[in-house]
Amino acid sequence: MNATWQYQVRIRLAPECAAIARQEPSNEKLGPLNAVLARHHAQLKCQYDAFADYVAQAERDGIEHYPLYRWTRETIENPAKKAKYLEAFTLYVNGDEVYEKALADALEADLHSLANAAIIDIRKYDTNPANNPQPPSHGKQAGS
What we know:
144 residues, alpha+beta, 4-stranded antiparallel beta sheet, 4 strands, 44% helix, disordered C terminus
């Protein structure tokens, strides 16, 4: 069987631009990036904020229902990892976290064409588990 994988584009922003993107996403310093995002009906979501949202939701609903709670909490509490994830952004297209390859390819190409100092790195991922690191198994400590 030939599975059809979904894709996701992630970017890393320069520290100053990452802070602006989190606090004032419509700031003119992000104008070229925002133009590309608008063309693709895409929005930025800071990975640190997504992790913090997951932890907060787990704490509201009961952490026993969230298998990655401990790993995620340890990640956002680690200063080095926090700094890394504050600069990392997932791009949602039409509100979706993963999307068709054609959408991801077009978005990635437009981002590469920006040649903008705000964007440090652009990566495209697919949902094929063989191509992605797997989360720690339930009950294992992060780093074990």
